């Protein structure tokens, strides 16, 4: 999540990669007991380090000192940065995650799940792709100290892995969130709590290989396609085209596309103008063998402006009649 928050700050123009950061004493591993024995970038108090280098220190070197330094710069303090982390977690729907530190080392009250880590990774890939791209870099040298990326899957000859992140603590064990692509298909694997470094990489490779072998990503609703048209009240048009937009792709077992069913529900009983293109008005449910396997937002494909005074008055009457007598007056 630290990387995601930094990526969003860069994307919003709040910070730049070229900004120079003065390293504080709290980011000095020798002077901060919480960092002793953990992976670091070897920062020293008073150093001037660019945001770009600190970011690479966080991602490639797993530098916990770099996490503190960049958090202080982005938010003013570690506590304020943690608040940003938890704010984004809430927006992403990470209901089983609470962050207490900027670096992820063991702390009372800090927890997460494999599903939440997968959702976070998905959000990073989609929301801040330039930030995510740093995760595939295999090494980084700072202050003449070269360190390889801790994610050994980047060197795998069996997978086209391009991320994501390792994590190791006494309390959580050896963990790895990984992602790889095969053609247009991307998979994310999460392995938590293993006993050794070797096991987390072996199990992650097994998961990704299994996924590519037995699953496929399909697009049952094309990005520019209309999934359904729906009656609109008080608009310059009486119908709205609704679809899935860019979110129409799903992953399912190979050969099961023919059994996939799609239905939808609206957030409100009636659609009323104005409606903006891209506005979410409902949910698309994808079912396989009567079981919901994916849900996607149902969005407006073309804007519907508010109609004129007289057309709105007519719609007001028709809407009342529709409520009383049903579809005769729709």
UniProtKB/TrEMBL annotation:
EC supergroup of this enzyme: hydrolase
Membrane topology: Peripheral membrane protein
SUPFAM superfamilies: beta-lactamase/transpeptidase-like, Penicillin-binding protein associated domain
E.C. designation(s): 3.4.16.4
Classification via Gene3D superfamilies: D-Ala-D-Ala carboxypeptidase, C-terminal domain, DD-peptidase/beta-lactamase superfamily
Reactions catalysed according to its record: Preferential cleavage: (Ac)2-L-Lys-D-Ala-|-D-Ala. Also transpeptidation of peptidyl-alanyl moieties that are N-acyl substituents of D-alanine
Entries under Pfam families matching the protein: PBP5_C, Peptidase_S11
Primary localization class, coarse: membrane
Location of this chain's protein in the cell: Cell inner membrane
InterPro entries: Beta-lactam/transpept-like, Peniciliin-bd_prot_C_sf, Peptidase_S11, Peptidase_S11_C, Peptidase_S11_C_sf, Peptidase_S11_N
Pathway: Cell wall biogenesis; peptidoglycan biosynthesis; Glycan biosynthesis
Protein name: serine-type D-Ala-D-Ala carboxypeptidase
Organism field: Klebsiella pneumoniae
Gene it is expressed from: dacC_2
């Amino acid at each position: 999540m630290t990387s995601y928050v930094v990526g969003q700050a860069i994307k919003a123009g709040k910070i730049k990669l070229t900004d120079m950061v003065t390293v504080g004493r709290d980011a000095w591993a020798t002077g901060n007991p919480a960092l002793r024995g953990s992976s670091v970038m070897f920062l020293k108090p008073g150093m001037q380090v660019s945001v770009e280098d600190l970011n690479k220190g966080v991602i490639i070197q797993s530098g916990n000192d770099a996490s503190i330094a960049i958090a202080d710069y982005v938010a003013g303090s570690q506590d304020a940065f943690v608040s940003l982390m938890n704010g984004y977690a809430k927006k992403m729907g990470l209901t089983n995650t609470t962050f207490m530190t900027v670096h992820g080392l063991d702390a009372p009250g800090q927890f997460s799940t494999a599903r939440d880590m997968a959702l976070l990774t998905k959000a990073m890939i989609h929301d801040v792709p330039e930030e995510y791209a740093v995760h595939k870099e295999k090494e980084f040298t700072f202050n003449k100290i070269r360190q390889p990326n801790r994610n050994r899957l980047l060197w795998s000859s069996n997978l086209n892995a391009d991320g994501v992140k390792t994590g190791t603590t006494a309390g959580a064990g050896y963990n790895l969130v990984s992602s790889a692509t095969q053609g247009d298909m991307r998979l994310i694997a999460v392995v938590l709590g293993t006993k050794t470094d070797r096991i987390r990489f072996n199990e992650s490779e097994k998961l990704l290989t299994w996924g590519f072998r037995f699953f496929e990503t399909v697009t049952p609703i094309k990005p520019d396609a209309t999934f359904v048209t729906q009656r609109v009240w008080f608009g310059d048009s009486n119908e709205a085209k609704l679809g899935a937009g860019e979110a129409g792709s799903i992953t399912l077992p190979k050969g099961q596309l023919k059994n996939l069913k799609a239905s939808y529900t609206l957030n409100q009983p009636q659609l009323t103008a104005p409606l903006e293109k891209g506005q979410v008005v409902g949910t698309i449910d994808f079912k396989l063998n009567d079981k919901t396997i994916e849900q996607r937002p149902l969005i407006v494909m073309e804007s519907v402006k508010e109609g004129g005074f007289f057309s709105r008055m007519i719609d007001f009457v028709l809407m009342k009649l529709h409520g009383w007598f049903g579809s005769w007056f729709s």
